[in-house]
Amino acid sequence: MSGRAVALPYGVGRISLGWLALVAIAAALVGVGAFAYAIQELEGPIATGLRDWGTMGGATWGLYVSFIVYFVGVSFAGITVAALIRILGLTYLRPISRVAELLTIVSLILGALSVLADLGQPLRGIANLFRYARPQSPFFGTFTMVIAGYLFASLVYFYLAGRRDAYLMAQYPSPLRWLYRAWAAGYQDTPEEKARHERISFWLALGILPLLVIAHSTLGLVFGLMGGRPGWFSALQAPGFVVLAGVSGIGHIIVLAALLRWSLGLRDQPEMAAFRWLGQALLVLGIIYIYFTIVEMVTAGYAGREHEQRLAKLVLVGYYAPFFWTGMGALGLAIGLLASQALSGRWSIPLLVASGILANVTAVAKRLIIVVPSLTHGSLLPYGIGMYIPTWVEGAIIAGLMGLGALTILLFMKAFPIMEVPAPVEEVRP
Amino acid sequence: MPRYAMTIDLSRCMGCRACMVACKVENNTPEAHFWMYVFRFEEEEYPKTRVWFLPRPCQHCDNAPCVKVCPVGARYKRDDGLVLTDFQRCIGCRYCEVACPYGVNYFHWKHPDKAQYLDYTDDPEVKSRTNNTMPPYRNPDADLRYGPEERLTAGAHHYRGVIGKCTFCVHRVEKGLEPACVANCPVRVFEFGDLDDPNSIVSQKLRTNPHFRLLEEEGTKPRVYYLMGNPPSPEVRQVMPVKGGKRG
Description:
Chain A has helices at residues 17-43, 63-88, 94-118, 122-131, 138-169, 177-184, 191-224, 237-263, 272-303, 306-316, 321-344, 349-371, 373-376, 392-415.
């Protein structure tokens, strides 16, 4: 734009070959997902592997619902970390604050899109969920608190937290200056403005924390309140969802933070203290989740009704055991890796990244284990057992959604600094 | 306002499944959808084997889990006790289906027109037997709106991507007729009537016969009463289940 153009921080505006390749892969995934969704829309939900439980012998909910829960779960940690930074004053976590907030927003949008992929009448869904909303339905919480309230609060928080950087970025000559100016909206980073912003962010963060516990609990209650469905009806569902959400979300943040540190060539940002904090948080949440799972299985297997026992057996040693043990084994391994680092006091980013990935393997496997077996094998009437094998259409749509998430983050990081711009840059004013 | 209920006399049922056929014809349910289903059970071992049958319509519960969980009020309970689905409001989330412990809900995985047993649009096979004309398969009564709310609730041939289930044949009940399964049973297994009327046949049957309701322990308060029998024990084996397949 001008001869005086300077390099913008964190690679903003600089297009590299690696970035282009990643964008191409993500865009290709989105394309495949869109194609699969077109097929599903043309043929109807028959294109999926889902069918009615009962005489039809299928599973009514499957991959889509599991991933609604998974995506919404991932959103948990982003805004929690951002809020904790404000509330507890964890300054060393500040560099990952923006990527965490972005992850929350992106994954919530992906969760909402998975809902649309699952609905038989998606357009009606968009209209009728507002028009005829019924607070008595556990879905009401999912749509209002999770997808509306929580997403909206996160967007406001994200916007406010970005104003300072937008103002700083507007000082540089760049083709995106209009965006930074619009985002900053008159903010000039004066001490008074700074103080006001800090105050607003603090209270907003304080408000978001209970909101997100409620939101994730309502998602757990979608399953936990179903008295007629063995495997679901449990008071542990809601807290279990909150904790597993934290496990998957923190796992994601670790991976993203490491990727940023590596791809942007930053040696000391985010600093090791941030990774250590994330690792410790993941360790604690992982142990709590293992504890919840053991309590759940003991309750179902020991004192549970016959159907509960049968289902617990099926998950522990039966047809679904490979999924269950993959999930729990991955979490066990992640906890082992984290605990050994915590005990030795030496934290390593590759090991943390491995733990983060393993935590997400657990999250996906456990979500499938929550959703599917209760439908294929959880009938209280003697219908016989059901079967669910997802089709490529379902897999492609989920992959497309993940591609969309990656694409959004990739595009965002070239338009706006993905980490907080550290130093004031008034001196480069052109 | 009547308080409709159904009684099912298990000592009479011989498992002929005529009720299932009557339901299909009356409501145009697609392949593999059984709004009325008859379990055929086998119990104990030879030589004490016992075979018995249990028809399973929607239980039209007073405390219906499906009504509670519907996020848009498409599944609702009428004042007369019928639990119905508003096909024009249903968004196809299938929460009612997973909440119901009886397995009576069927989702339209494809358009009902494309999932009929015969191709009613233009099937040479059909035409060869009907003097080259295509018979109509849709029950015109199911296209009308019923009840004071005037919602589209009858029949199974309306939309893709919505849920459907037994309506107690709302379109027949509104005309003073019995549901199709009741009217077509050759041995009068079913009775349908008003619980508030002490002289109705269902009231009389319930006064004079031992009865139970399915999965009563779930607190659903069904409006379907089974006479002269016991609930299926965990040991029963289902024999000859329908081969509904996965066509949906």
